[in-house]
Amino acid sequence: MRYPQLQTACFQFPCIDNHAHPLLAEAHRDRFQFEGLISEAQGTALNDAIHTLACHRAAAQLAAVLRIQDPNWNSVTSARTRLPYADLCKLFMDRTVTGIQCLILDDGLGGVEDFAEGFAWHDQFTSSPTKRIVRVEIVAEAILKSISRQHADSDDASILKSFNAALHESLTNSANDENVVAFKSIACYRTGLNVSPSGSEDAILQCFQDVLKALEETGRIRLAHKALNDHIVRMALEVAGQHRKPVQFHCGLGDNDITLNLSSPSHLQAVIKAYHNTPFVLLHSSYPFTREAGYLSAVYLNVFLDFGEVFPFVSGEGQRSIIRQVLELCPTNKILWSTDGHWWPESFYLGTIQARQALYAVLSDVVASGELSEGAAVAVVQNALFHNSNKLYNLGLSPDLTIFKQK
Fold first, then answer.
1. Hey, is 364 helix, strand or coil?
2. Contacts for 398-401 with beta carbons within 8 Å, 24 or more apart?
3. Which residues of 77-102 are buried (b: 16+ CB within 10 A; e: fewer)?
4. Roughly what angle, to the nearest 10 degrees, separates helices 136-150 and 226-243?
5. Looking at residues 393-406, what average pLDDT do you find?
6. What are the residue boundaries of the Amidohydrolase-related domain, all occurrences included (predicted)?
7. Secondary structure E strands in 276-384
8. CATH of residue 393
């Protein structure tokens, strides 16, 4: 390769995965359709994922690790099924393979406690302890269920007051928990990212009453009520700001449950201004709204841009284009990397190797153009992979430069 120092930084510098999810437990290794590794599509639409460029590339890369001569999706699926689960996890998750030094996991996916491993279980794959991200809306739903049972004879306004107190206490306890380094909101999935910086008490109470009625009728709860959801996000932003904990927001790339035009991070501008002491992390490259995210990170001190999940969901050329868009405007001390790894160990491998390849391809071109020195490009990579997350999440880590020497 043309630039050996940049090559070393891209392919051998340890990394902090600032947003991922737990692996499935062995007993549930086949719980979800494996095509979910390469697409956010749901149901029968997921069957089309195998016809994407992203899938063909992923199949070839996984086949090389599995030592399959015929690199197609079916052969990869068959080969992984035959492997003992512990061997499969080690093959694709071991730190000497990925270079991941620390995982930061959102373990708030629905039902995750029943079919996925706990966050500390993942320490076997890293040299630094795994940390947690608390998913705000899921916490709020659990509290609301509990509060409604405890105060069944109270009026709705009193139940809302109790709910507010309990949620504030829970968020504060999480902020003080040494294992929790961030909060996350899925407002994008529920009511959109146009979160209002203020709200009417009457509107909040009306939504709260609607939620209680639905809970009474169905026994289930899913917070998708605009005024109440915005209220919950504001509470999280306030607590996070007081404790200097970042709040991650799902932006852009997701399944068909999001409203695409409300998934642009540009809709967050009002609350970014209002909660200027709270660090905002715009997840998943905000794809296809990457430039909007870069703009926000450039003009607001408290905004950071994660360039994850597009590995492996987007084609190689698409990934390189996304990184170029990130670098158009985003300060390089505010770029964070993640895999958005989930369920399958292969997701962590692909999320890592493809990101490293894309970084080298883009930055080597920038160096070749004379716009950046090789040394400066090395610093960009090391910051994006490790130092920026280490600082933002207050991890206090030093890069483990021995990771790739442990093979």
1. helix
2. 399/13, 399/14, 399/101, 400/14, 400/101, 400/127, 400/128, 401/14
3. eebbeeeeeeebbbbbbbbebbbbbb
4. 110
5. 93
6. 229-371
7. 280-282, 303-306, 335-336
8. 3.20.20.140
DSSP string, 370-385: TSS-HHHHHHHHHIII
pLDDT of residue 407: 61
Residue 148 has pLDDT above 90, yes or no: no
Six-digit token string for 83 = 């492997």
Q: Note the pLDDT of residue 113.
A: 85
Give the integer Cα–Cα distance in Å for 151 and 300: 42
Helix (H, G, I), strand (E, B) or coil at 193: coil
Average pLDDT, the chain: 96
CA 134, 138, 144, 147 torsion-angle sign: negative
Q: How many residues does the chain have?
A: 407
What is the model's pLDDT at position 406?
77
Beta bridge partners, 15, equal: 100
Give residue-wise pLDDT tens across range 6-34: 999 999 999 999 999 999 999 999 999 99
Domain enclosing residue 44, as ranges: 4-405
Q: What are phi and psi of 33, to 5 degrees?
A: -60, 125
Average pLDDT for 300-326: 97
Count of the separate structural domains present in the chain: 1
| Structural tokens at position 381 | 């990579």
